[in-house]
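so my prof wants the structure for this chain in the tokens format not the other one, which i didnt know existed until like an hour ago. anyway here's the sequence
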Amino acid sequence: MVKNNCRRHGWWNIKFRGCGYRLTSGREAILDILSKSEGHLSAEDIYMKLHPKYPNIGLTTIYRTLDVLANLGLIFKFDFGDKRARYELAEGPKGAQHHHHLICTSCKRVIDYTDFIDEEVKLLNETEKGLCQKYEFKITNHLIQFYGLCKICAKR
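here's what i got, hopefully its the right format
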């Protein structure tokens, strides 16, 4: 199964080799799990999905691999306020799927959204442009998380 995904996700190989890393079966298995995930997985979540097929890969190896993947820019590492690092793929086989997060501080639900409102897009574009000019810095990406209460928790 992982071998077929290697062909489908050739960009993983390119990114690894370009940075001097080998794409091992364990690393590829972790990327494959993240690529199929709908949510934001913790290292423990990944371990539970990986362990039946790869019992020799331990949690320490998964943490080290996740650090490498985050440093390479292949995955994003998040802290949604639950004291557990969560991960998601930075880019899928179809390219980047940029989104922002809404995080409920009560039930810890995380909502990914891509249907940005016009004012949000305008504000972010102006903010990025201003920051680039002020600090002579080229912004290539951003992560935005909004914290509050989901509609269920707000009714309580």
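also thought this was worth mentioning. The chain is about 45% helix and 15% strand.
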